[in-house]
Design brief:
The complex is a heterodimer of chains A (115) and B (111).
Chain A lengths: L3 E4 L2 E5 L4 E7 L6 E7 L5 E8 L4 E4 L2 E6 L4 E6 L8 E12 L2 E6 L3 E6 L1
Parallel strand pairs in A: 2-11
Antiparallel strand pairs in A: 1-3, 3-8, 4-5, 4-9, 6-7, 7-8, 9-10, 9-11
Chain B lengths: L2 E5 L2 E4 L5 E8 L5 E7 L5 E9 L2 E4 L6 E6 L2 E6 L8 E8 L5 E3 L3 E5 L1
Parallel strand pairs in B: 2-11
Antiparallel strand pairs in B: 1-3, 3-8, 4-5, 4-9, 5-6, 7-8, 9-10, 9-11
The chains are: A mainly beta (115), B mainly beta (111).
Chain lengths: 115, 111
């Protein structure tokens, strides 16, 4: 059974700092890994999707890396801003049946960027 | 592009009342659709998924049911709500390469 862990559970940084969020998974036979952002009371917004054959993906100030062999992914946020404050979730799909793949989520990292 | 719509955004219902939450998608056909629930202070729990019209799989035995009457419509229902049904309900769409798009969610409070 796949288990996904995120460390730290909460992180508070001053504006402008670069930061790294960590995600680890127990079964390295993943198809991909997806990072999401969730603002309070809102749905999940997809940030980055890394396929198992990829090492990293970048979008603006965000960079996600994937190391399948060690069961780890990191989300790097450059020059953090107060608007980056949110809960960040990583998730990996695993087989439900047929074409269906349900997501296993980490418990999330609650990020606060202080102005 | 694929989009997913959920409504209502917020709902307050008395115990014992029925429930119907709707999710519709655009920009794709025959998608795999999912209902997740996020209870306060807890993680996301998969409730149901559907790979096509009339095809529903349940992950957790509970007071809820789901239906897929049309290709792009996924409905979550209950005949009689319990206090424990309170939570944040999210519909999700499985896209290409098993990337997922989530709706904006429905906050359900059972009183």
């Amino acid at each position: 059974k796949q288990e996904v862990t995120q460390i730290p559970a909460a992180l508070s940084v001053p504006e402008g700092e670069n930061l790294v969020l960590n995600c680890s998974f127990t079964d390295s036979a993943i198809y991909n890994l997806q990072w999401f952002r969730q603002d309070p009371g809102k749905g999940l917004t997809s940030l980055l999707l890394i396929q198992s054959s990829q090492r990293e993906q970048t979008s603006g100030r965000l960079n996600a890396s994937l190391d399948k062999s060690s069961g780890r992914s990191t989300l790097y946020i450059a020059a953090s801003q107060p608007g980056d404050s949110a809960t960040y979730l990583c998730a990996v799909p695993f087989l439900s049946s047929g074409s269906a793949r349900q997501l296993t989520f980490g418990s999330g990292t609650q990020l606060t960027v202080l102005p | 592009s694929q989009t997913i719509h959920q409504w209502p955004a917020t709902l307050v219902q008395p115990v014992g009342s029925p429930l119907s939450l709707e999710c519709t998608v655009e920009g794709t056909s025959n998608p795999n659709l999912y209902w997740y629930r996020q209870a306060a202070g807890r993680g996301l729990q998969l409730l149901f998924y559907s790979v096509g019209i009339g095809q529903i799989s349940s992950e957790v035995p509970q007071n809820l049911s789901a239906s897929r009457p049309q290709d792009r419509q996924f409905i979550l229902s209950s005949k009689k709500l319990l206090l424990s049904d309170s939570g944040f309900y999210l519909c999700a769409l499985q896209g290409a390469n098993y990337g997922y798009t989530f709706g904006s969610g429905t906050r359900l409070t059972v009183v």
